[in-house]
Amino acid sequence: MANTEREAAERIRELRQTITGHDERYYREASPEISDPEYDRLKQELTDLEARFPQFASADSPAQTIGDDRLEAFTSYRHREPMASLDNTYNEEELRAFHQRLVKLFGEEDLAYVVEPKIDGVAVSLTFEEGKLVRAVTRGNGIEGDDVTHNVRTIRSLPARLAGEDWPAMIEIRGEIFMETAEFERINTERAEAGLPLYANPRNLAAGTVKLLDSREAAKRRLRIVLYGRGYCEPMPFERQSGFHDALRKWELPTVDKYWVTRGMEETWKAVTELDALRHDFAYPTDGAVIKLDSIARQEEAGSTSKAPRWAIAYKFAAERAETVVRAISIQVGRTGTLTPVAELEPVPLAGSTVSRATLHNADEIARKDVRAGDAVLVEKAGEIIPAVVAVVPGKRPPDSQPYAFPEKCPVCETAVIRLPNEVATRCPNLSCPAQVRRRIQHFASRQCMDIEGLGEAVVDQLVNRGLVHSLPDLYHLRLEDLLDLEKFAQKSSENLLRALEESKSRELWRLIHGLGIQHIGATASKDLARAIPDLEKLAAASEEELTVIDGIGPITARSIAAYFANADNRELIHKLTAAGLTVRGEETAGAPAEGPLSGKSFVLTGKLPTLSRTGAGELIESAGGRVVSSVSKKTDYVLAGEEAGSKLDKARSLGIPVLDESDLRKLLQNGGNGES
509-588 — its CATH code? Predict the structure, then answer.
């Protein structure tokens, strides 16, 4: 526990970095690594620390935000009414405390609630105008989200028009997109037969499908949707949440199978327990109950915090647990060399599937729980993430049991492992370790990085095991005859992979930076780096001080980047990738920066302009010597805003940064950058 200011500052920094990384993996990459309870515990610890040490609190702390699923490939739209998240609770006592806060506010014990299933899917907001579906937008950052209308229209159960005629002129209807287990298994069966890596779980696959650029591909995956929430509505015909549910059914929209209208906490708790018993019969994954005030007038009176309504709460059902036996403890080696212990289990049914492996996280966790081969253990599966060993079952340990000794050598390459100060991870320092090579190539080829179609896990394993690929540059020296020798590879599939490799050479610079696998560098940071230093060789030569001044790059990230490029092996890797013909310079930096009336000025673009696309506006600015950046800061000179501008416009106003419209920009260009008409 952090007791001093110094300890608190360090722990807050660690938590913010950790939570931001998990947000990136959950919201943008659809590949979470921890369960919801583990994530919530981290966030609660950060919230408590910032409350105890308010001098370190910050409005942009992940404790005060809800994450952000927006991607640059999509157009963002502002929600007419913010799309908040919900506060979570995991026990009856906290649920009753929520009720008592509202009792104190309204002076009434017998409050009316609606209890709904909490669907574990991808949040979306649908806008209907005059009964017609006009737009589907993800939650994004709660203020604005990505337009995914092209994919949502492929959902067969969702009508393009509301039934009847008794609907508001404009309404935002919120819900969750999900994938049924049977459809998930169908897709994974097809991928297994094709030798492709399997998807982790239905929620992640649904999230990835929603963000596909090709709606034809999305249509093949048979997404489903369930609707239950209301955003902006004009006029407002509803007085109660329960009445809104009735309207959804009348409009013939897919909605929850069952909801309960209750009075007081005793009835509400009874409904929650009934829902827990029924939820496995629903088509959609249900991981909890949502409790909302039924009265919409009282909802508005209760109001919201910066990230969640005060009139609603999510009660998360306890993660399912099962008892089984640890057959053995094995070690996985990741792309950064991290050794992760895994319990090999006697197979046991759990949460709708058979579990035979569970993570043990790290050496400290094994020691803390004292997990040993032969132990009877409790295994928990929460949020459809890889199961974890929760505890050893007392009294069932074999008499000849021995404590587990964490390996001193890498189990793959037998290099002596290391553990750096202030880190929980034990690592293999050998960059040529085959396990690391496989993981690095899989990351490099992934959709979030170089997007090399056909280079899945099974193919990578064969390439590494046969000695055809030892490092990333070797991919670009593969020949047709190399691929024809691989299992399940014919002429066409071999030619397709070679074509995909050739196409990847011209990917955007940020994808290459992300694909290098630098610690702490995700997709967003890679884009920030590529904008600020759009030349990989110059980026490799940048000092920590030069990196720290880049928007979005903090001291820890800067240190990680500098350390990566200081390594001689990594510099040689860059040289070989350059020699193989990969893009190492951003297109906008082919020559010296243009000189013009906007030289030295930085612009942030947001919203929809009347006649110019964002790309066109950016080209005009850059051709006049200006620079387009992604985020608003005190260093920003102008914000160019159009219709449906989002949070960037709000931040610009709060910082006093000049806001331009399209006509202002044209005047600025015509008048030598001085803004005079």
Answer: 1.10.150.20
